[in-house]
Amino acid sequence: MGAKRTPPSPPPPIRNPNPSLRQRGVGGAELAASAATTTKQMLAFHFLRALSRIHRATASPVTRRTRNIRRAAYSSMARAASPRRAWSRAILGQARARRSRTLMRRAVMVRRRRVAAAASRIAAGGETSAAAARAALPEPPPPIPRQVDEPARADALRRLVPGGAGMEYCSLLEETADYMQLLRQQVQLMQGLVNLFSIESAGNTLNHTKNKKDYIERKRSIWLGRSTNSLSKITKLYT
């Protein structure tokens, strides 16, 4: 009989060209921390760019500027989030609809100024076009009736989370978790800006400028308190 065959030796293991990826792939903690840092940077980038646009705009009342800052904060939060999130799409959709209504009103005002003789006819046409544009906007989805096994807090979460009116409970919980994360980062960013403006306002010697900055700071603090209150409500309902 012939000699007994020996089994072939196993091939050598493939070397990892990047050994650092082996440690990061164990738990994904570093990857998650890097993603959170990137989200914070994107949130700060979009919000500071929106603030610069508001600052370069024409002079407007403090109340309107405060409202624009609040809207810019939420729009920046939606842009920093994933585009697959329903709440971010809902906020950006509201911003686009609001911008289209503003442009439509400006176009109507320009037409009224150019054609003064037919002011009544142009005004009626502008109102008709505005009503048609509002009718062309997509209607929000009808609220889903609460299931038997759903807790009572599901309806409250659907009212607090943007775009949550037509969500199922499992999707609603996922959207709420992501919305809470971005809202918490937004509150931290606004708190840092409020502290920065407080330091600058304390070092200002002009009384009228200081009073104006103090008023703006109080308005921002009020909005920050509302955001914190909204975050605490969602946290109580989610946990």
TrEMBL record:
InterPro entries: IBH1-like (IPR044660), IBH1_N (IPR059002). Residues 1-33 are annotated as: Disordered. Keywords: Transcription, Transcription regulation. Residues 45-96 form the IBH1-like N-terminal domain. Residues 7-16 have a biased composition (Pro residues). Pfam families: IBH1_N (PF26576). This is IBH1-like N-terminal domain-containing protein. It comes from Leersia perrieri. GO terms for biological process: regulation of DNA-templated transcription; response to brassinosteroid; unidimensional cell growth.
